[in-house]
Amino acid sequence: GTKKQRIRTCGLMSALRLLTTIAALFVYSALACSNILITPEASEDGSSMIFYTADSAELYAKIEFLPAMEYPAGTMMSIYDWDSGKYLGEIEQVNKTLNVVANQNEKQVIIGETTFGGISELCYPPGAIMDYGSLIWATLQRAHSARDAIRIMGELVAEYGYASGGESFSIADKHEVWVLEMIPKGVHERGAVWVAQKIPKGHIVAHANQARIRTFPLNDPNSAIYSSDVISFARAHGLYEGPDEAFSFSDTYDPVTVSGARFCEARVWSLYRRFADGMMPYLDYVQGQNLSNRMPWSVQPREKISLNDTMWAFRQHNEGSWFDNTKDVGAAAFSSPYRWRPLTWELEGTRYVNERTVAAQQTGWNFVAQARAWLPDEIGAVTWFGADDAATSVHVPIYASITRIPSKWALPKGDKTLNGDVTKFSFDSAFWVMNMVANLAYTRWRDIYPYVAEELAATEEEYFASSAQAEKTAIALVSNGQHADAVEHLTQYSVTTANECVSRFLDLWQRLFVIFRDGSVTTENTENPSCGCSVKATGYPNNWYHRIVEDTGDHYKMYPDSALEAEDEKAIASGRFRVINKLDVRGV
């Protein structure tokens, strides 16, 4: 079996001790992403879907755009680490690249990821060129199918080396959905060991910073594809000594720890629980109490999953489950599902956790990408892109064939004055406007979030309808052989819709700020001549008042004003003037 005594996982603390500063900064994001993959047979409309959240406070929401290009033979492509920006080297560019928008290309290939880290001695080998982000973009520029993407990724890391830590890649096309898990070979050899497994028809898979592929078919390339040395490498370096058929990728290269179960697999459990039955037997596993009680890799949902279902699944914070943290004292008065980082804290020698939820405040961006086999590629490939926290961000439709991207969702190189970046605010930035809405909601979650949720639902419902109409027009153009006109139509629709969305949510923030300023609820009331408004003091819920009294005793107790009450009674009897109670004076 696996030789666990020789294993040291690359969690945050070991990474900080063992890796370079740049690598350590990257591992800050190691508990940082969540993915769910939905096969066409499991989706309501027959599309392949991948939902992805990029969860790191260092990330700025922007829609990546790599236009289709042609290059002369011998052209080299510079590779910069996607997280640190460090120059890693060059690879040979192909003669013709595909159009790439966000994490999808014009052939309807989608790639997402979550980082699992794994065995620290294997992570971030010196001299390697292909980091995980560059591997995604280079592959999307080349791949015509999910299987093609798997082949290309294996070839690129074999030739140029793999410069990151362990990674789970979500890969889909319009017919198939796969998960590829990969880890470098450290200083031992150039390249990586990896396995890709196809999700069974009608099933879904989620992963969230923990390797999840265990045993896999060794002689069925229709179900699993893997590097030739994925088992022999582990055996040669003392990581595994059992038979080939019992080999588990996850248990060998990323064995589950308590943090892996509680912070990572718990997110998978919460997503599975939303869509499928039979997840309660695994509660002790995701609590970190029984690490041998692993969940199934894939599950069959109880019913077909819609695009809208997927969006709302990623807006959850474990509400209604054992992990629900909206009811304890940490939720404060307004039932906040958020806990400010770090994920763990210590008090009087005991270590405690903050739950790691699917929706998270530190998200840079999130998306649902669809590949739809019944539509021409120009139309079928669409990404519903959101900025910031998935719970508070609206998703705008962005087609993978478009030739321009919306300016308010871009990061202009070298000029922060256009629409900011992660350290410079701008009202013309989708990232910052969505952050404004989110951070206002965080202050009084119970009161404000229902307004936000209502706006999200209404806006996305409009986009579902308008995108269907835009696609109808594009289909007619393609049918007439006007492919370029169809692409231009979708480009104009995507750009206009996305940029107008920013204005719409800036207006939402302004309305919410007016309503909820200063702890009250202020609404328009034309019958009030003094302000044209109604102002309601909402106070706190009774459970919070109970906690105040339990904590402070009589400190805030208001004693009866017997003198005032007696004077009032005498004043009434004698017809004299009375003293107005100060609680009735405006301004107190």
Please describe what this structure looks like:
The protein has 588 residues and is an alpha+beta fold. Helices cover 33% and strands 18% of the residues. The protein has 16 helices and 21 strands. It has helices spanning 12-18, 21-27, 132-140, 146-160, 232-236, 249-253, 258-275, 283-286, 307-313, 377-380, 416-419, 430-443, 445-479, 483-516, 542-552, 562-574; strands at 33-38, 48-55, 65-66, 76-80, 87-92, 100-101, 104-105, 110-117, 166-172, 177-184, 192-198, 204-207, 224-226, 298-299, 344-347, 350-353, 363-371, 382-387, 396-399, 520-524, 533-537. The strands form six sheets. The chain has a seven-stranded antiparallel β-sheet. It has a five-stranded antiparallel β-sheet with strand order 8-9-10-11-13, covered by helices on one side. A hairpin with an 8-residue loop joins strand 18 (382-387) and strand 19. The longest helix is centred in the C-terminal third of the chain and has 35 residues, at 445-479. Mean pLDDT is 92; it is low at 2-31.
What is this structure's SSE topology?
Blueprint (H helix, E strand, L loop, with lengths): L11 H7 L2 H7 L5 E6 L9 E8 L9 E2 L9 E5 L6 E6 L7 E2 L2 E2 L4 E8 L14 H9 L5 H15 L5 E7 L4 E8 L7 E7 L5 E4 L16 E3 L5 H5 L12 H5 L4 H18 L7 H4 L11 E2 L7 H7 L30 E4 L2 E4 L9 E9 L5 H4 L1 E6 L8 E4 L16 H4 L10 H14 L1 H35 L3 H34 L3 E5 L8 E5 L4 H11 L9 H13 L14
Antiparallel strand pairs: 1-2, 1-12, 2-17, 3-6, 4-5, 6-7, 8-9, 9-10, 10-11, 11-13, 12-14, 15-16, 17-18, 18-19, 20-21
Helix pairs in contact: 1-2, 3-4, 12-13, 12-14, 13-14
Principal-axes shape call? globular
Strands in their spatial order, largest beta sheet? 14-12-1-2-17-18-19
Q: N-to-C terminal Cα separation, in Å?
A: 72 Å
Ranges where pLDDT stays below 50 over 5 or more residues in a row are 2-31
